[in-house]
Amino acid sequence: MHAPNALPVPHPDLSICFGGGDYAQSARMLLDFFIRHADLKPHEHLLDVGCGAGRAAWGLAEYLTPEGRYSGFDTFPMGVTWCQENLSPRLPNFEFRTVDVFSGVYNPGANVSAEAFRFPYPDASFDLVILVSVFTHMLPADMAGYLAEIARVLKPGGRMFATYYFMNDATRALLAKGPSKPDFTKRYGNFWVADPASKEDAVAFEESLVRAMLAREGLTPAKLVPGRWCGRDGCENGQDMLVAVKPQSGQAHQLRT
Ligand SMILES: C[S@@+](CC[C@H](N)C(=O)[O-])C[C@H]1O[C@@H](n2cnc3c(N)ncnc32)[C@H](O)[C@@H]1O
């Protein structure tokens, strides 16, 4: 166990890698979400897809025991390099790597699409896969490829915690009263973007599209915690939070409420 306030935090110049705001405070908030919503236990093995500058890792450092393990990868090298230099030497059970995967915003020079990318981990190796503000920067085919990989690397009974902007009847009713933040001005069938010139800046999905993709990969939605991005009051988080479960064979998984 490590006290998180003993770990360094990145310079604000790296805020593109974690969305800005108070890094330490939001790291602690994320840890609370993983425990309460995704049932994270201190001994578990966790994969952080799009780990950025290690914000989730920073909070997890005070919670995971030495049996626990954290792996994070990202397509944008700057945040990963900071983690390798500043967190890895202090956290032997944490590892960070850069992957050269195409993202219109974060890595436009890469040759491998996210849809085709195979995560560099064996099957059934993680209890929890987290994606914080990552599917909000990916287009549908790329998300579908990542969901297939997540289903592959999760252990039976493992969970995915992912944040989204979900369009559904409830959000449409709220959006009729005023713009969302981000303001999703352009619709392409079952997804929306804020800026058509840079689509992956911010992407919202029709909720039913994501549910259909999860079903195709054998992942069961277990919890949806709506966010305040669409003008909703009384929310824990800006983005919606979804937890899905890879069932034990022949068995439905019950999450703690
Ligand atoms: C807003 S940041 C969030 C970073 C981190 N999850 C956090 O919450 O602090 C979005 C991150 O997703 C990463 N990302 C976007 N598309 C990706 C992809 N296809 N594969 C891996 N990482 C990706 C970006 O490089 C960026 O670091």
Textual characterization of the structure:
This protein is of the alpha/beta class. The chain has a single domain (21-245), classed as Rossmann fold (3-Layer(aba) Sandwich), CATH 3.40.50. 25% of the residues lie in helices and 22% in strands. It contains six helices and eleven strands. The chain has helices at 23-38, 55-60, 77-86, 140-153, 169-175, 207-216; strands at 45-49, 69-74, 94-98, 126-131, 154-164, 166-167, 186-188, 191-193, 203-206, 220-225, 240-245. It has a seven-stranded mixed sheet with strand order 3-2-1-4-5-11-10, sandwiched between helices. The chain has a four-stranded mixed sheet with strand order 6-9-8-7. Helix 3 (77-86) links the parallel strand 2 and strand 3. The two termini are 26 Å apart. The protein binds S-adenosylmethionine. Residues 17-19, 49-52, 55, 74-76, 79, 101, 103, 106, 114, 132-134, 137-138 line the site of S-adenosylmethionine.
What is the assigned CATH homologous superfamily? Vaccinia Virus protein VP39
Estimate nothing, just give the exact number of structural domains. Answer: 1
Q: Strand order across the biggest sheet?
A: 3-2-1-4-5-11-10
Radius of gyration: 17 Å
Distance between the termini: 26 Å
Q: Considering DSSP H and I runs of 4 or more, what fraction of the residues is helical?
A: 10-25%
Structural class: alpha/beta
CATH architecture classification: 3-Layer(aba) Sandwich
Strand content: 15-25%
CATH topology: Rossmann fold
Total number of helices: 6
Assembly annotation: single chain
Low-confidence stretches: none
Ions, cofactors and other ligands present here are:
S-adenosylmethionine
Describe the biggest sheet? 7 strands, mixed
Q: Please, what is the average pLDDT?
A: 95
CATH class term: Alpha Beta
Shape: globular
Number of strands: 11
* Topology as a string of helices (H) and strands (E): HEHEHEEHEEHEEEHEE
